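Standup notes
- HV: blocked on the assembly model, inputs below
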Amino acid sequence: GESVGLHLPTLSVQEGDNSIINCAYSNSASDYFIWYKQESGKGPQFIIDIRSNMDKRQGQRVTVLLNKTVKHLSLQIAATQPGDSAVYFCAEKRWAGGGADGLTFGKGTHLIIQP
Amino acid sequence: DTEVTQTPKHLVMGMTNKKSLKCEQHMGHRAMYWYKQKAKKPPELMFVYSYEKLSINESVPSRFSPECPNSSLLNLHLHALQPEDSALYLCASSQGPGIWELFFGEGSRLTVL
C-alpha cells in the first residue's frame, strides 16, 4: 500500500485565510519529502521540499513542517488566493538502490477557495 | 528552457491501434520518467530512465513500451491497449538519478475505445 497519505480529500477555505494541508507517512526511514500543486488540466508543479534533517522550511507564502516523531508533514499556505485552488500532493522519495529514483505520491487534497 | 513538452495533448485510439506518446526536455536532465494518472488519483510511477537506460519498470504490462532515443527525448509506445488504460500520462525529468525535484509536462490524455 501507499506509505504517503493525506488526511482529508477536500479542504475549503476562505480567501485570505491560511490553509493547512496535512500528510502522514509510514516509513520512518523516509528522508525527503516534496509538495506538488496540480491545477485542473495541468501537470504537477513543484512547490517546496524538505529533508528529514529539517523540521521546517519556508518559501514564498508557503511553509512545510515535518514532525518525524509522528511521521507527519504539513503544508501551510498563507493568505490563500483564488489561484491556490488546486489538488496538492505530498510525495516521498522512492529508494531504488543503485538505480534512478522516482517519487511516490500521496492521495492528494483538493483545496477549494471560497470568495 | 525549463519546460517538459508532451505530445499529443489528447489521443483517442482503438484497442487494435498502435500509437506513441512523446516527451521532450532541453534542460540537460539525465533522468526521465513516465507516470500514469487516473481521474482523482495521484500519479503512479511506470518507468524511469537514467542516462538513457531503463532503470525502473514498475511491473507495467508489455502493451506499454518505453523508449529513450537520446537524453532529451522519451517515448511511450502503445499497442493493444484496454479501455482501463485510459488516463493522463505524465512525463517528468530531473537533473539526474538521486535528484528528486521532478519537472512535469502537462500530460497526454489518452482515451482507449
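- HV (later): unblocked. The longest strand of chain B covers residues 18-25. Chain B has no helices and eleven strands.
- Next: hand off to the docking folks.
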